[in-house]
């Protein structure tokens, strides 16, 4: 059961990283994009593509 949770977390991390890399916003680092997504809901919506 614990291994399934780790696999799920790994998949979520990969999807998140791919969404951040796909985002065509300004030339900012992935680390900076992660922080901006955490702070700015409009940027989060833009990255997710809703």
Please give the largest β-sheet.
none
The number of domains: 1
Distance between the termini: 32 Å
Q: Which percent range fits the helix content?
A: over 70%
Report the count of strand segments.
0
One letter per element, helices H and strands E, the order comes to HHH
Query: Which structural category fits the helices and strands?
Result: mainly alpha
Provide the residue-averaged pLDDT.
Answer: 87
Radius of gyration, in Å, reads 13 Å
SS strand fraction: under 5%
Stretches where pLDDT is under 50 for at least 5 consecutive residues are none
Shape: elongated
Count of alpha and pi helical runs:
3
Characterization of the model:
This protein is 78% helix and 0% strand. With 50 residues, it is an all-alpha fold. The chain has one domain (2-48). It is elongated, with a radius of gyration of 13 Å. 2% of the residues are buried. The mean pLDDT is 87.
What topology does this entry show?
Layout: H1 2-22, H2 30-39, H3 41-48
Task: From the structure above, extract its key features.
50 residues, mainly alpha, 3 helices, elongated
Q: What is the compact description of this entry?
A:
This protein has three helices and no strands. The protein has helices at residues 2-22, 30-39, 41-48.
